[in-house]
């Protein structure tokens, strides 16, 4: 509305002269401020509940002002998954208190003219009032400041909770003059969803390219059920090697989708599609059965592969039939449960776990299955958490391992984590080892086990069989020589 004040004042001057001009130039801003103008925040304790600005209304107004004045406005969307966990563990009242505290922290980091909205779950939207200095660097800098406000740990019942956020940013600079508030807000939603796919603690800025990628992922969501029906999604395997002896001590299982038009897709590219289409349990079972078959085939070929690892998602662990199904599958094919390692993420180690997850872990362990902790070093996982589940090994995250030969900081971090694992008597496996130089540094730091493309890229069971045969022949020739 304020964007049209100059035009209104000019019309008033034409109609009634200077008296009308003075009256309108003073009365309109006062009326605007009195009835909930831009920059006012809703106070739940006030009597203005019915006058609280709507997200869509403020967004449309900010766009109009920015377009009229040649300014820029921006929308930040946040998702804080830990809020959902707080609601489950401590109740919705505590979660509401946590949301209110985060809103307060966000507002303290913003100008009076900016707006903060939140939903009833884990999402927040921040609308930045139009300004002339909102370029890319400014938006990223503001994003860091707001992230710091949101991710400040929360204390609930004496326990500190880390609250990592995913952030999506949509700037009005990316759109034409006819863009609607709905389109702008939807673009920020696309950006934050892409951030969620990339992992906690990430930020994504909306662009045409990001939008195309987002829509492409949603297309996969419609196709994944048929892909599972038609056997397009297959297990591939990568060896785990003893760096001291060179022996292959196990295999890790990955999923690959041989898509008819997009080529081979890694799990990272389609896991969110599987999750959103409620296909995670089916995908997990498909890969699990193929992993068992591969291990039995290698046994029949005379290869000494002691264990095989399969990832268990949180979605699968919440399935009340999971433990019984895995136990039944192992018994049916005659595979000892001690040879099956189930990989879990650090969130599963939370002190307050879902009752179904707790039961599945307990029953699988009682049956003899072992657990590996995936991506150790990538997230905040404390010593107490490591002792919540009987772990066989921890997997050092590939981001930590990458270029460890070139970074003193990474070497110190890996050395510290290896020392921690040694004191807890939990072996570590370095993942994502790409070069001989990385392999050498890891061995010198005391890491005994590793996997990565330096040995071989993930391959089908038959291809791994050929690789094992070639390695066996090479070792025999070296022994005879």
Automatic annotation (TrEMBL):
Pfam families: EAL. GO terms for molecular function: cyclic-guanylate-specific phosphodiesterase activity. This is GGDEF domain-containing protein. Residues 217-472 form the EAL domain. It comes from Marivita cryptomonadis. It comes from the Bacteria.
């Amino acid at each position: 509305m304020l964007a049209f004040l100059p035009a209104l004042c000019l019309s008033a001057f034409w109609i009634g002269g200077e008296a009308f001009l003075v009256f309108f130039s003073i009365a309109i801003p006062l009326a605007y401020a009195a009835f909930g103008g831009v920059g006012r925040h809703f106070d739940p304790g006030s009597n203005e509940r019915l006058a609280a600005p709507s997200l869509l209304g403020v967004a449309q107004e900010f766009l109009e002002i920015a377009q009229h004045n040649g300014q820029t406005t921006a929308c930040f969307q946040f998702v804080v998954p830990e809020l959902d966990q707080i609601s489950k563990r401590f109740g919705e009242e505590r979660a509401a208190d946590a949301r209110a505290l985060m809103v307060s922290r966000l507002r303290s980091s913003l100008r009076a003219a900016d707006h903060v909205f939140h939903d009833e779950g884990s999402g927040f939207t921040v609308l930045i009032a139009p300004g002339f200095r909102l370029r890319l660097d400014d938006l990223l800098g503001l994003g860091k400041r707001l992230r710091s406000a949101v991710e400040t740990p929360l204390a609930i019942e004496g326990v500190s909770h880390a609250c990592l956020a995913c952030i999506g940013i949509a700037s009005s600079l990316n759109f034409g003059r006819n863009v609607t508030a709905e389109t702008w807000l939807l673009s920020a939603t696309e950006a934050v969803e892409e951030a969620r796919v990339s992992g906690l603690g990430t930020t994504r800025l909306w662009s045409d390219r990001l939008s195309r990628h987002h829509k492409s992922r949603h297309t996969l969501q419609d196709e994944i059920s048929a892909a599972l029906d038609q056997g397009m999604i297959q297990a591939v395997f990568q060896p785990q090697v003893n760096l001291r002896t060179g022996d292959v001590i196990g295999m890790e299982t990955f999923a690959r989708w041989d898509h008819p038009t997009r080529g081979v897709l890694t799990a990272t590219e389609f896991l969110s599609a599987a999750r959103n289409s409620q296909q995670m349990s089916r995908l997990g079972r498909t890969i699990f059965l193929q992993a068992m078959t591969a291990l039995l085939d290698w046994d029949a070929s005379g290869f000494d592969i002691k264990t095989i690892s399969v990832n268990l998602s949180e979605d699968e662990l919440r399935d009340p039939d999971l433990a019984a199904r895995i136990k039944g599958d192992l018994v049916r094919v005659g595979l000892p449960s001690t040879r099956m390692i189930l990989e879990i993420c650090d969130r599963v180690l939370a002190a307050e776990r879902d009752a179904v997850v707790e039961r599945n872990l307990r029953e699988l362990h009682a049956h003899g299955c072992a657990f590996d902790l995936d991506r150790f070093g990538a997230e905040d996982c404390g010593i107490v958490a490591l002792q919540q589940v009987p772990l066989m090994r921890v997997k050092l995250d590939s981001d930590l391992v990458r270029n460890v030969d070139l970074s003193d900081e990474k070497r110190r971090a890996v050395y510290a984590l290896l020392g921690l694992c040694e004191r807890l008597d939990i072996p570590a496996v370095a993942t994502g080892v790409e070069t001989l130089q990385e392999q050498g540094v890891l061995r010198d730091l005391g890491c005994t086990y590793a996997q990565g493309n330096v040995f071989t890229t993930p391959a089908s069971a038959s291809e791994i069989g050929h690789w094992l045969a070639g390695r066996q022949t090479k070792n025999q020739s070296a022994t005879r020589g």
